[in-house]
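F.,

This is the one I mentioned.
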């Protein structure tokens, strides 16, 4: 392993507590990180308590690992703990694509490149992300027709970082990007959705990426267990140079401290855990994420 590479252990724990026993629940999970050129997953396991009556896995249409499980007994709580060992290394990224963003649609229409054909799926509207209208107007106030695709994508990501306020609990999981654009505040999921809407409005395919971000403690302070977070960013299709990740929450191109779990058209495609349950009364939810440097080749 060279100096531009790190090994991490990621522990993601989700705990549901019910005020009344639940008799049945069905859940779908996106918790196993992807294998990528810059990311190798050496181990991954998911522990569920109570023990599920059934569970099975598959790859979805985007190539993400998905798992379903069902609990069919009375239970007052549910705990899902995902643990993974991951090696993350840096790769060289292009500064320019060689294609101006208005030319991308023409290039994709005439290209037989399988990557270009597959990218079209991320150009159309999805559950959370609708292009055009206010998003197009906002984007055209930041970029012009002489911008390279990569330059245009970076400018839009930087503008969201500069102009939007990161404010926890100011939105919820169903908040629409148009509301975030109007109020100029939200969290990483919201900023990713706004950037996707802007990119698609310019004819640039964009996908939603879910994962983890290693956070650094203040100087002289210890790193707290559970202080890291689930995170979301965007990947823009830049033509012949492929996909470029963009993190508008932090105004960076994701690197060694970003770990990819799944990607899709928007959050609805890659929610970490989603499902239904019978009974349960009121439910409280607690989520903790810890990303730490791995000391050996086995999960603690």
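My design for it:
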């Amino acid at each position: 392993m060279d100096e531009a590479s790190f090994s991490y252990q990621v522990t993601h724990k989700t705990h549901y507590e019910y005020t009344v026993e639940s008799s049945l629940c069905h859940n779908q999970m996106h918790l196993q990180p992807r294998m990528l050129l810059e990311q190798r997953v050496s181990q991954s396991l998911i522990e569920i308590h109570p023990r599920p009556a059934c569970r099975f896995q598959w790859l979805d249409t985007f190539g993400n690992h998905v798992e379903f499980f069902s609990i069919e007994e009375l239970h007052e709580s549910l705990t899902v703990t995902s643990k993974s060992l991951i090696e993350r290394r840096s790769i060289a990224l292009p500064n320019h694509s060689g294609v101006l963003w208005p030319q991308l649609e023409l290039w994709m229409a005439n290209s037989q490149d399988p990557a270009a054909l597959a990218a079209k799926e991320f150009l159309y509207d999805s559950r959370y992300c609708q292009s055009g209208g206010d998003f197009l107007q906002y984007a055209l106030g930041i970029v012009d027709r002489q911008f390279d695709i990569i330059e245009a994508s970076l400018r839009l990501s930087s503008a969201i970082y500069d102009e939007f306020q990161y404010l926890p609990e100011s939105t919820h999981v169903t908040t629409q990007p148009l509301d975030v654009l109007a109020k100029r505040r939200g969290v990483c999921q919201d900023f990713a959705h706004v950037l996707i809407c802007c990119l698609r409005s310019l004819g640039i395919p964009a996908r939603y990426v879910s994962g983890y971000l290693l956070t650094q403690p203040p100087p002289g302070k210890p790193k707290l267990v559970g202080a890291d977070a689930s995170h979301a960013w965007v990947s823009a299709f830049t033509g012949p140079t492929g996909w470029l990740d963009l993190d508008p929450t932090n105004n960076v191109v994701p690197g060694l401290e970003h770990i990819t779990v799944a990607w899709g058209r928007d959050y609805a495609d890659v929610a970490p855990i989603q499902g239904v349950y019978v009974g349960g009364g009121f439910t409280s939810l607690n989520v903790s994420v810890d990303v730490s440097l791995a000391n050996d080749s086995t999960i603690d």
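The helical segments are 104-110, 114-119, 133-140, 149-163, 177-183, 188-201, 267-270.

Talk soon.
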